[in-house]
User: What shape does this take?
Amino acid sequence: MGRWFGYGAVLVAASVTLVGCGPAPEGGSTEAASESCVRMVTNSGGLEDRSFNQASWEGLQRAEDELGVEAEAIVSTGETDLAPNVQQAVESGCELIVTVGFELADATLSQAEANPDLAFAIVDEVVEAENVKPVIFDTAQASFLAGYLAAGVSKTGIVATFGGGNQPPVTLFMDGFVDGVAKYNEVHGTAVQVLGWDKAAQDGAFTGDFEDINKGKALSESLIDQGADVILPVAGQVGEGATAAALERGGVSVIWVDSDGYESLAAEFRPVLLTSVLKNTQDAMVEIVGAVQDGSFSNEPYVGTLENGGVEIAPYHDLAPLVSPALDGEIEGLRQAIISGEIVVESPSAP
Assistant: This one.
């Protein structure tokens, strides 16, 4: 695990300036804070979740290299760790605290209100406070491209998606995916079907957690049994079950989320990974650290889009032969149409 970077900060209105770490709050840690530091608190998925905990941490490691700070992660292993870990981060003496995921929203808000001189950033969730910067992503835009791609490569005419829980950061992916499939059907006069999500009803297939890989495998096997040959799991580590099922069954491909699954998952799964819907959390972390350092930090949300590079789809890697030049060209055209505003990907969960 890498080291954390600590910052001292002065809060003026909604902006925070790093001026060097001071001593820990009374009653907190007596360990001396470094000249410039940050603390990141993971959700219960842990640091190596192949998702946004890992991506956020990679961004802070980049900030170490590029901006000369020290970064350290406090890993949560269960729900009871969350609030104490945020408290520990606050007591570190660092003036930038990064929390990851909706599970940490309440603890982040509580500590932010109690410590108005500290800067907080929360990834993949919105917390409204003068000193908290939400880091969120309009993943529906990139998922739209992934849905169009899935429909274009499907041999059975059936694709699928499922989530870990019915929550806006999850269903935002699913909304975009369904709309992308619908766009393909509109353009090509086809009738590719999506299993696992009803956008109108905002309901579908969920495993109920983000950690039990066996649940993801069982649900994926059920979807494959119904004819799905491309699956988009939006379920953190649970999604690995989909890659395992696809590898065992054959003729099925998977679209990963958050990070490039081709790089973050075990190499054995590469033959079934079609693409990934990316959240560029790494760049967001570096940008926020820099803003704290130069005094421009604010609570204005960072929203990742196709236009600013905050979301994207990954290369097709080993499955590139499945994607014809014509299909790839159509996807590029859709990307530009979304960036220009010609196509607006809508979702009740959009940031």
Observations:
- Residues 1-34 have pLDDT under 50 and may be disordered.
- The chain has two domains: 9-136+281-304, 139-279+316-340.
